[in-house]
TrEMBL record:
<keyword id="KW-0238">DNA-binding</keyword>
<dbReference type="InterPro" id="IPR058245">
    <property type="entry name" value="NreC/VraR/RcsB-like_REC"/>
</dbReference>
<keyword id="KW-0805">Transcription regulation</keyword>
<feature type="domain" description="HTH luxR-type">
    <location>
        <begin position="146"/>
        <end position="211"/>
    </location>
</feature>
<protein>
    <submittedName>
        <fullName>Response regulator transcription factor</fullName>
    </submittedName>
</protein>
<dbReference type="InterPro" id="IPR000792">
    <property type="entry name" value="Tscrpt_reg_LuxR_C"/>
</dbReference>
<keyword id="KW-0597">Phosphoprotein</keyword>
<dbReference type="InterPro" id="IPR016032">
    <property type="entry name" value="Sig_transdc_resp-reg_C-effctor"/>
</dbReference>
<feature type="modified residue" description="4-aspartylphosphate">
    <location>
        <position position="55"/>
    </location>
</feature>
<dbReference type="InterPro" id="IPR001789">
    <property type="entry name" value="Sig_transdc_resp-reg_receiver"/>
</dbReference>
<dbReference type="Pfam" id="PF00072">
    <property type="entry name" value="Response_reg"/>
</dbReference>
<keyword id="KW-0804">Transcription</keyword>
<dbReference type="InterPro" id="IPR011006">
    <property type="entry name" value="CheY-like_superfamily"/>
</dbReference>
<dbReference type="InterPro" id="IPR039420">
    <property type="entry name" value="WalR-like"/>
</dbReference>
<dbReference type="Pfam" id="PF00196">
    <property type="entry name" value="GerE"/>
</dbReference>
<feature type="domain" description="Response regulatory">
    <location>
        <begin position="4"/>
        <end position="121"/>
    </location>
</feature>
Length: 216
C-alpha cells in the first residue's frame, strides 16, 4: 500500500510543489489538500492519511493547534510532518512538543522531501536536526529533570535513548549496540513507557529538556 499524504498549507504553490514531488514516487499518494489547519481534523477523519504534511503558520488555525486537535480527537492519528521556512523557528519546536513527528524545510530538495515523508511514516527514526536540539535544550527545566530521574532508565535503556536522540533508526541502534532489532524495539518501548512519551519525538524532547543529552 502506498503512503497516503494530506497536504496542508495556505500557499497554493507550496501545495502544488509538494504534490508534484510526492506523486512522482510509486510508493506515495497525495489523498487531499487543505489551505488551513481548521480543515485538518475532518479531512483526517474522512481520508485517513498516513502522514499530514502541514505548514506551521497559517491564518485561522496554525500547525501547532491543528496538531493538538488531531492527536486529541482522532483515533489512531496519522504522523504529522511540520513544513516550515525557518529551521530554528520556535513555532516548529512548539509543534514538536505538541506531538508532531518531525519537520521539513520548504526549501528542501525533492529527495529530502520524499525521505522525510517515508521516515515519519515508518516511525522508527527522527527528523530532529541540530537547530531544534538547541531549542530543546533551552527549554530545560527542573520538572523535566525530575521526570527523567523518576523514569529510572536501565543502563541499556539510557544508551538506546541517547542513540535515539542522534536520530538513529532501530536497525542502526541494533548495529551500534550489537544486539537484535527486536531487542532494540523492546528497549524503545520501555523507554517510551517509562517517560510517558507518545512516540520517539516526545522521548527525545524529554531527553534534551532534562539535560540527559546535550545538543553537542
Amino acid at each position: 500500500m502506498p503512503i497516503s499524504v494530506l497536504l496542508v498549507d495556505d500557499e497554493p504553490l507550496v501545495r502544488a510543489g509538494l504534490r508534484a514531488v510526492l506523486e512522482a514516487q510509486p510508493d506515495i499518494e497525495v489523498v487531499g489538500e487543505a489551505a488551513d489547519g481548521a480543515a485538518v481534523v475532518p479531512l483526517v477523519r474522512s481520508l485517513r492519511p498516513d502522514v499530514v504534511a502541514m505548514d506551521v503558520r497559517m491564518p485561522l488555525l496554525d500547525g501547532i493547534e491543528a496538531t493538538r486537535a488531531v492527536l486529541r480527537t482522532v483515533d489512531d492519528p496519522p504522523k504529522i510532518l511540520v513544513v516550515t521556512t525557518f529551521e530554528n523557528d520556535e513555532y516548529v519546536y512548539d509543534a514538536l512538543r505538541a506531538g508532531a513527528d518531525g519537520f521539513l524545510l520548504k526549501r528542501a530538495r525533492p529527495a529530502e522531501i520524499v525521505h522525510a515523508v517515508r521516515l515519519v511514516a515508518e516511525g522508527e527514526s527522527l527528523l530532529f536536526p541540530a537547530a531544534v536540539r538547541s531549542l530543546a535544550a533551552e527549554y530545560g527545566s527542573a520538572p523535566a529533570r525530575a521526570a527523567m530521574e523518576r523514569a529510572a532508565l536501565t543502563e541499556r535503556e539510557a544508551a538506546v535513548l541517547r542513540l535515539m536522540a542522534r536520530g538513529m533508526s532501530n536497525a542502526e541502534i541494533a548495529a551500534e549496540l550489537v544486539v537484535g532489532a527486536e531487542t532494540v524495539k523492546s528497549h524503545v518501548s520501555a523507554v517510551l513507557a517509562k517517560l510517558g512519551a507518545r512516540d520517539r519525538t516526545q522521548a527525545v524532547i524529554a531527553a534534551y529538556e532534562s539535560g540527559f543529552v546535550s545538543p553537542g
